[in-house]
Amino acid sequence: MVSNGHQNFQSVSRRHFIRAGSAGAAGLWLSACGGREPPPRANSAVIGEAPRRWVKDPTPFIHRTTNLETRLEDITGFITPNELFFVRNHSPTPLIDPDRYALKVHGPGLSTELEIGLGTLESMPQTTVTAYLECAGNWRGLFRELTGARASGGQWTTGAVGCAVWSGPTLGSVLELAGLTGDAVDVNLVGLDGSAFERAMPLAKAFHPDTLIALRMNDQPLPQDHGFPARAVVPGWTGSASIKWLGEIHVSTEKVWNRNNTTSYVLIGDQWPEADYAPALGAPINELVVKSALALPRPAALGPGPHQLHGFAHSGSGPVREVQWSADGGTTWQAATIVDPVVATAWQRFEFTWNAVPGDHVLMTRAVDSAGMAQPDQPLMNDKGYLLNVPLPHPVTVA
Ligand SMILES: Nc1nc2c(c(=O)[nH]1)N[C@H]1C(S)=C(S)[C@@H](COP(=O)(O)O)O[C@H]1N2
Ligand SMILES: [Mo]
User: Fold this and answer.
1) Does some domain include residue 268?
2) What pTM, to 2 d.p., does this model score?
């Protein structure tokens, strides 16, 4: 086990470093690799694989191969506790030695190449942001019941979303240590996991004051499954941009195209135009869309009488300013109450009282965000099942 609770002086000083490399070395590395693909991870900080929480029983999660889906009904407050936060892993969680951890910051868009130790990241000014993370494929498993077509990928219902308090240096402050050149364009973040999961973004998003290299989650060091010892948190963008086990920041002087904005995280299918986005197969998705969901099992069983129900509404251009609910499958709607605190980068918790009468019912909720975006009435099927956000019919039996 890697301990991060005890820090003797030696380990603190070992973690506390910035090594500057030469631009020449970075140039060699780039030309050897054709300037596009990062090399396979051979980072000495990766010392194994973390124990797999998804084989543990009993578990509060819905298990989906390497992923863990939150049961939304278990989340009663504004913040998702760490141990209930969904996990989306493209390969097993790497176990990282915090003393050997070094974040590599490099690329032709920077004046220097740096390696930054965990202690240095910890000693920089820390910014705290309460933000929700949502997988682009959250709700994917519901395409089938709503459209008749099954999207490819993990069949999540409504639990690939959570909201936490993140803190760490801003990504911009770390980039400033290395200094941008005048022709820097894109910032690519790469994980230390086996799949070297990565995501690129323009400078404006990388320098957004809410975009963090988070070291802490809900006042704890990041849990292993959520990216220990450092992860990106990119509020407003799909969860896939919030690279866990962050090992590398590469700043390029051209727009970056890699798997996660060309073949994955693109909108493709019969209802989407082709080829306009080359080299991407379809429109790459960045921002999250407005959604709302009830914190109830699917389907739910309730006794008759008044129930105070709650749920969560969120938008990449948040906050959500209005939530309505319907108990007749969307024929009539009433206002739900949005509960404080309202934080733009977070989700909004809403509640309402439903006087349940015996029988089978369909509850629905719909949200409008502060940019005026509303949940659409018709689902737009896409082959990879991203960003479904119609008002969801939620079956409830009252007996
Ligand atoms: N290195 C790395 N980062 C990653 C991933 C991954 O597989 N590897 N998955 C991404 C996806 S698709 C999502 S939705 C979020 C999920 O974050 P969580 O597991 O902390 O909930 O992490 C993102 N960051
Ligand atoms: Mo995701």
Assistant:
1) no
2) 0.92
Count of structural domains, the chain: 2
Mutate to test the pocket of ligand 1, among 43, 75, 192, 244 (most ligand atoms within 8 A of CB): 244
Give pLDDT tens digits for 258-278.
999 999 999 999 888 777 899
Rounded CA-CA distance 274/184 in Å is 29
Q: Which of the residues in the chain have pLDDT under 50?
A: 1-9, 23-40
Residues 185 and 302 in one domain: no
pLDDT, tens digit, 9 for 90 and up, residues 223-267: 999 999 999 999 999 999 999 999 999 999 999 999 999 999 999
Q: How many residues does the chain have?
A: 399
**What SS3 state is found at 100?**
coil
Q: Which ligand is nearest to the CA of 194?
A: 1
Q: Is 242 left (phi over 0), alpha (psi -120 to 50) or beta?
A: beta
Host domain of residue 90: 6-256
- Which residue is closest in CA terms to ligand 1's atom 11? 240
For residues 252 and 127, state if they share a domain: yes
